[in-house]
User: What shape does this take?
Amino acid sequence: MNASFFHPADGDGTGVFGRFGGQYVPEALVAAIDELTVAYDKARADEDFAAELTALLADYAGRPTPLTEVPRFAEAIGARVFLKREDLNHTGSHKLNNALGQALLARRMGKPRIIAETGAGQHGVATATACALLGLDCTVYMGTVDIERQALNVARMRILGTEVVPVSTGAGTLKDAINEAFRDWVSTVDSTHYLFGTAAGPHPFPTIVRDFQRVVGVEAREQILRRTGQLPDAVLACVGGGSNAIGVFHPFLDDAATRLIGCEAAGDGVETGRHSATLAGGRVGVLHGSRSYVLQDNDGQTLETHSISAGLDYAGVGPEHAHLRDSGRAEYVPVTDDEAMAALRLLARTEGIIPAIESSHALAGAVKLGAELGEVVLINLSGRGDKDMDTAASYFDLVGE
Amino acid sequence: MFSGDKKTVVGYLPAGFPTVDDSVEALVAMAESGCGALEIGLPYTDPVMDGPAIQSASTVALANGVKTDDVLRVVERVAARTEVPILVMTYWNPVEQYGIERFADRLCEAGGAGCVLPDLPVQHSLPWREEAAKRYLASVFIVAPSSTDRRVAEIAAASTGFVYAASTMGVTGMRTQVTGGDLVARIRTATDLPVFVGLGVSNGRQAAEVAGFADGVIVGSAIVRRLLDAPDVDTGIAEIRVLCGELADGVGALVGSP
Assistant: This one.
């Protein structure tokens, strides 16, 4: 079998998604993102590149990841529910798919140094892993609040030989880590590739990250067809920046009968103002290099966000999601901290699978919408929950006796 | 806006730092002590082109509750007390959210001369440039050492007022060495506009070096640092006066020299 795990989307290489996207970056970075665009266009058409990435995804990451039917969990929904098990991908989340792809790309561009931002630490760990594997120097920027709540992943990155740089500006979360990574990149762009983790940022990042994550949806679509003889009535995924969601949604875009539902982090509730539900509570603006929805005040200042999940605690969202929302092809629902944590515990107790808090937002979205989702429901379980056990222990008061 | 035969010091300070009133006094002092133009910063939450000094100042200003309207009032108050051209330097989202036309109108009414927008690349700049041109506001674009010759030409063609040459690849902040001669030479092949050099310039000696090949210097972090490090605002403003005097002497020392 020589089928590729790399499924670049055809055609749309402009970085424009309806009225969203673009390249709102300092001039110093323009040459670098142009170079990246050219290198990616060459790589996506190169069979050797696809073969190399495919081999890594199969023999190193463990793809394809399984599709697991979860009947006991499904009782809460009233449909057949299948989980796409990205938690079983090496390093414990979908993030490695993109990290391996971009690290290979960086090596082809002759860049010996990688920088990345991370929120939950999953992208940081995936990047640190890819860099260890390929012998690249790696620095990861991470907000101080996230360093505290995702301590396990900080230790993993350091064991892998990555320098983790704490970022204390702003709220000390993902947005601030991205700012700091951009500042590094402006100074080091000759030798350094910015391995962006989510399907946001300036073109070509939303396209590159989507293409490297499409493997999730391509596999899941085949697997569910084979298992059930039909396409799912609904596909659900959590959305922070939106990389796992765009990866699982994209291969279903032409399947008009399949609902695509993104689950945003509503924190304490969208009405409280303490949330990260960008598509529910944001307005169109520019943040981190592209036009999309942004949680911002009337003056265009980015608002501080909240989510119990570090990976979804972000004021922006990828431009393709903004376009899918406006075009009506995908819908986006807010899920609160409490709803996500209840879904985390439910899956653990009914199926013996502990999901990441991020992914628990997608599970909770399915529980919330219930039987209206139809007969066959696909949920992308984007990551595993080991990293979240401190947060869960204090949330559920599991500490001590 | 700027004549080619006189070297210019452009001084930068964010509006609202350390307070709205103090920023007005500091900016007026900068104009009085040697700055031939002012860049008034409109603080933004996510300033990816700024190093620690300007980030800190912007954070203070935002924490003080400074709004875009307050910044425009600072422009107006400073413009009432000095003749030097005043540019607003900010990131794109605050301008877009305020409304491009409305922002250009208010800036014009306040006596502003134009904008520097470091994360608005020339290919996305037409909506701003159209509104700016209608009101004779300058659109200053930054050229980086990494800019290709084709981009240098595009940026130079889109710029009005002057062209901002980034001395180095990096964010704002003081540096021990300032370069940029090669980039300035490349820009000069594309335009007759004055070329000012920014990023890293912090003292009179560096200003003199830069004035040897450019038409002016842009100084921000060194000015901000005077206020950040001073025990009180009056001392900080006094030190800014000394610094701006040194910078003006530095660039002036080369005026008319062979």
In short: The beta strands of chain B are 8-14, 37-41, 86-89, 114-116, 138-140, 142-143, 163-166, 195-198, 216-219. Residues 6 and 255 of chain B are 7 Å apart (CA to CA).
